[in-house]
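Quick question, first post here. What does this chain look like in 3D?
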Amino acid sequence: MSSDPRFSAFLKERIGLDVASVGEAIIERAVRQRCQSSQAQSAQDYWQYLQHSRDEQQALIEAVIVPETWFFRYPESFATLARLAQARLAEIKQMRALRILSLPCSTGEEPYSIAMALLDAGLAPHQFKVQGMDVSPLSVERARRGVYGKNSFRGADLEFRDRHFTEEAGGYRIADRVREQVRLQVGNLLDPALLANEPIYDFVFCRNLLIYFDQPTQKQVFDVLKELTHVDGVLFIGPAEGSLLGRHGMRSIGVPQSFAFSRHVEQTPPAPVFVPMPAPTPQRSAAPIPLKPRPFSKPRPPEPPAKVPHTDAGELLSQIATLANEGKSAEARAACERYLGSHPPAAQVFYWLGLLSDVAGSALEAQGYYRKALYLEPQHPQALMHLAALLESQGDSAGARRLQARAARSERADSESKP
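> Answer (accepted):
Ran it through. Tokens below.
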């Protein structure tokens, strides 16, 4: 029952979910739960029931989607939004309200955080409106209730809770002045008619969603996001998704830990500095780091890559990605250290360490980890794009452009190598 591929195919068709991004175990567990709840006697019985029940289809989707969110997750994104919003209002001479989209909005923490950040920055209620959208009716209903438990409030700075919430028996209820700024609705990002009659948005938040799709679906979703975002607008994404946007003509605005991207107007690139590298092989494998430290002082050609055992190494890499994307930075870092203690060094592990340091605000440490990833795998796309964003934020525009050009060459080589 649990390994039946029809259920993965159903989720792929309905919400674009790539089974490899979450692991088969998540889908297997959800199917088992729904089989028990519906009292299906076999996989075939449940499959037949699923085909004829819209409610059950949604229930299976709900069982797979486990929202992991909290107020002001990645706080620099909201601080950056507040600054950009004030500048945008000045540009348009306050002739209309700013439009901000949050999707998926999950249980509402993100769109309400957007509204609180803008109100705290001094924007008047008539100057902006926030649209929240999610594929899950259950999540949208919880967002409309506006009552949150302690798990939605994380971090040391919780002063916003005193300003914008009222404590009650079931948790904390968000203030009406915040709720009134946010409109919530159910919607599927893969729906071609999504928001077709709505004006475009000045700012779009779509964080930690693209990582759950395969490449064709990522391209499809990105095209939708680009249509929804004003040509002068800004798209906020998750920490691990920067390289995906870089491939599609978007560029970091250069604010560390904001994960904010704008459209990039192509210019004639400078003369290449680096010798083009061959297209990377599909299996990312790691070359061992020399035992002596300072591997970057005098680079030497890497030795033939050593294959990482496919057993627990792959599972640990998947665990690192899951923990990092859920915001569990300490646990993700510990998993990286466990990996490096029991397996040959891997570029992807150093990339995750760089990303975790980047999110924590340790730019210098992050830069070192990204460079280690590129030492092991010179064309690692995510490391190239994130290091480019770091250099840009530090004023090294030339270095950033070189890395972006290098990533673009890698992308072209990757495309040309495919049949």
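Residues 354 and 369 are 5 Å apart (CA to CA).
Residues 267-311 have pLDDT under 50 and may be disordered.
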